[in-house]
């Protein structure tokens, strides 16, 4: 790679980095999108926008029914939001599949199965195949939900450092596989159960007799795994790691004697072996000198 192409690649990467850093937090992105949707619904309702329903027919005319746009902040929609919220939640189509899948994934995650499996998969990886193996395990880690973020990302940094490579490159490769390749997998996961219900509910608006399969998206997610793996491998080894520079681990700290605190007595202030400590000159039985008897003394006969 010549200097011109390096400058061009660096400029593009720097532009992507600057643009990505300007984006707000993902939570606020959803808030902004919800606000924009409310504004669009108000404007469409005021303008009288309508669309033809693909399946419903008008019982009087027999033609396809027209669906008029409604404002999301109208009185009827706000009342429906609060009154019919339990019905909307319980009638959510993929709710049963998601609960069952999340229950099994939660038990496997809390028991340490996912974390142990991911650690064992990448621990003995050779130096040359470290990046593709970390990326593959990271993409398969979406079955473990948040365990991939907690276990695999710091583990990848430690493995790269142990192999003499930059640990930030390992963290970047694991994060790219976990977040960027979240939908890619060789097995159906939690996201497939969620998308299965939404897809079937949307398809039934046009074809009421159509039934979806929870593994219907498997061909796509398995192909994404094959496509994402070489991309993450190339970007990590050829672009990210060279930009980080050579990794030189810090030398281990020297093990010396711990410094004594200031209150610790020095050798001169300590008494010698024969001196000892001076004891206070208290009489052994003070009641004999003062004339009064001890309360524990036996009574005179």
Keywords:
301 residues; single chain; 4% strand; mainly alpha; two-stranded antiparallel sheet; disordered N terminus; elongated
Poorly predicted regions are: 1-8
The total of beta strands comes to 2
Strand content: under 5%
Summarize the helix and strand pattern as letters: HHEEHHHHHHHHHH
Describe the structure.
The structure is a single chain. This protein is 57% helix and 4% strand. It is mainly alpha-helical and 301 residues long. A two-stranded antiparallel sheet has the order 1-2. α7 (130-140) packs parallel to α9. The relative contact order is 0.07.
Write a compact overview of the structure shown.
With 301 residues, this protein is mainly alpha-helical. The protein contains twelve helices and two strands; from the N terminus they run H-H-E-E-H-H-H-H-H-H-H-H-H-H.
Helix and strand layout, with pairings?
Elements: H1 3-22, H2 26-47, E1 50-57, E2 64-68, H3 75-83, H4 85-90, H5 95-110, H6 113-123, H7 130-140, H8 147-162, H9 167-180, H10 190-203, H11 218-244, H12 286-290
Antiparallel strand pairs: 1-2
Helix pairs in contact: 5-10, 6-8, 7-8, 7-9, 7-11, 8-9, 9-11
């Amino acid at each position: 790679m010549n200097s011109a192409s390096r400058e061009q690649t660096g400029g593009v990467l720097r532009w992507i980095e600057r643009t990505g850093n300007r984006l707000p937090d993902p939570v606020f992105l959803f808030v902004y999108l919800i606000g924009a949707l409310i504004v669009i619904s108000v404007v469409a309702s005021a303008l009288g926008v309508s669309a033809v329903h693909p399946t419903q027919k008008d019982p009087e005319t027999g033609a396809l029914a027209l669906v008029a746009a409604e404002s999301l902040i109208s009185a009827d929609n706000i009342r429906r939001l609060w009154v019919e919220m339990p019905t909307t939640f319980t009638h959510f189509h993929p709710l049963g599949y998601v609960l069952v899948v999340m229950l099994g994934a939660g038990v496997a995650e809390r028991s340490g199965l996912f974390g142990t499996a991911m650690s064992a998969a990448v621990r003995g990886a050779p130096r040359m195949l470290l990046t593709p193996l970390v990326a593959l395990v990271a993409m398969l880690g979406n079955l473990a939900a948040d365990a991939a973020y907690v276990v695999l990302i710091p583990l990848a940094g430690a493995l790269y450092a142990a192999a003499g490579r930059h640990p930030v490159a390992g963290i970047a490769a694991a994060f790219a596989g976990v977040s960027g390749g979240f939908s890619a997998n060789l097995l159906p996961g939690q996201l497939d159960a969620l998308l299965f219900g939404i897809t079937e509910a949307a398809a039934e608006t046009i074809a009421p007799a159509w039934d979806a399969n929870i593994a219907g998206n498997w061909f796509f997610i398995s192909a994404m795994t094959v496509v994402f793996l070489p991309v993450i491998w190339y970007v990590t080894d050829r672009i990210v790691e060279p930009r980080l520079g050579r990794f030189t681990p810090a030398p281990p700290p020297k093990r010396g004697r711990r410094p004594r605190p200031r209150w610790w007595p020095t050798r001169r202030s300590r008494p010698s072996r024969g001196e000892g400590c001076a004891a206070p000159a208290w009489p052994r039985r003070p009641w004999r000198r003062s004339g009064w008897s001890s309360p524990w003394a036996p009574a005179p006969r």
